[in-house]
Every structure is written in structure tokens, then in C-alpha cells.
Amino acid sequence: MEFSQRYVALGDSFTEGLGDTDPKLPNQVRGWADRAAEQLALAHPEASWGYVNLAIRGKKMNQILAEQIDVAVALKPTLVTIYSGINDILRPKVDIDAMVAKYSDGLAKLAATGARLLIFTGYDASSSKVFASIRGRTAVYNELVREVAETHGAELVDYWRFREYNDWRLWGIDRMHMSTPGHINMANRVLEQLGETVRIPMSELPPIPVRTTTETLKDNAAWTKEYVGPWVSRRLRGVSSGDNLSARWPVLRSPLA
Asked: What region does 111 belong to: left with phi over 0, alpha with psi -120 to 50, or beta?
């Protein structure tokens, strides 16, 4: 089937859709990119939309560049979104300048296709007691990303400035990935960047539960055991939660299928 509009989504768990659970779908997640693709197809029924999502959780910059860029280029995309680099920033050591220089080379390949190219800044984790320590690294990364976006004519989805994500109801139970409302909100942010007027309705967020100090300590202990411990262990062992996973939608398909 020929598609006049071809949207290719690249990256890691952020774009794969972790936190937006759907057992019926590949890798049991949906995510903002699926949701945005669906809305684009609904908003422009005159076009034939094809959609590919190559993002896999845990992927670092070099892996994304090596495994996803050339595949995307071969698809002759008309729209590309890419989010990459945060898994590198979370490692004990990272050369951010060298990393973004490689990113720039990959973006150059994508830009050369003539596709509309959207890239993301990293999230400002200042409200997270666990990830606030990487705020400085992320700020440096973001400044370099702003430069390469300008160099390659890419559009910037400025996640760093999305203050609504200081509300933990937009985050999943693991406190590392967006919840379903967070993914819906991100899809709407991307649609806004694309100049679309359509928005995905979002249900009213549940009230913030009032927790005693004791309850909060128990919650934090359980979260550390269930999520932080395994996350740290994987990094110490040099393995990733995505090592045995494949891309969710590796072949062009209708977002409405």
C-alpha cells in the first residue's frame, strides 16, 4: 500500500510508550506517538497515512543512531520525531558534547530526506528526588540540542519547559515514565507543535491522595524495591529492559488499523 504521508517515530521508552499500558498492542504499550499518529490520520482523511514506531526502551544514543536512522531514511518519511540521549545522561559517565555531535550527524541524515523533523529537549527533573541530580547534565544537553535543531532546520518540542509535568499524576507508578494522561498530554503538545487544532480529550485527573508521613515512607520503600533496585541492577550489569524486544511497529501501517 502506498502512503502519501509517512510518520516515523524514533527513540527509546519515551517514544515506545512505556507507562501507557495496553495489553492488546505490541510490547503491551500504546504511547503518545501512536496517539498523535491516529489524530493526524483522523484530522486529514484526504491523505493516506503510514506510521512506523522504531523506538525501543533502554536504547542509548549510539544504538538509536545505528539501528533506527537508516531504517527511517529508507522509508522516505514526511514526518519524523526523535527523542534520544537521556539514557546516556543517566549513566555514571557521559561525554555530552561528543554524544550530541553524533546526534547531529544522525539528524543531518533525517533532515536530508526533506521530512518535517521534530526533536525533543530533556525533561527538567528538578521535582524528582531521585533524578534531580541529572538536571545540570540535562540542561547542558538541551542547549546543545537547541543548536543542532537550528543547524538542521528541526523543530523543537521543548519538554524542559512543560511545567505541567511537575504534577506526578502525569507520571506512571514507576515514577520514570509518563502515565496515560502524561502520554495524552504529550501527544497534544506534539500536535500543537505541528500546527494542528485537534486535541485528544483527557479525563479529569484523580484527586491527589493525602498521605501520612508513615504511608509516604512505606510507598517510597516499596517503589525503591520494585523499580529503583532493578533499574540500578540492570545498569551495573550492562543490560537493558529492551534487550530482547523488537520495535513495536517496524513496517508502515495505517495508524487507524
From this structure: alpha
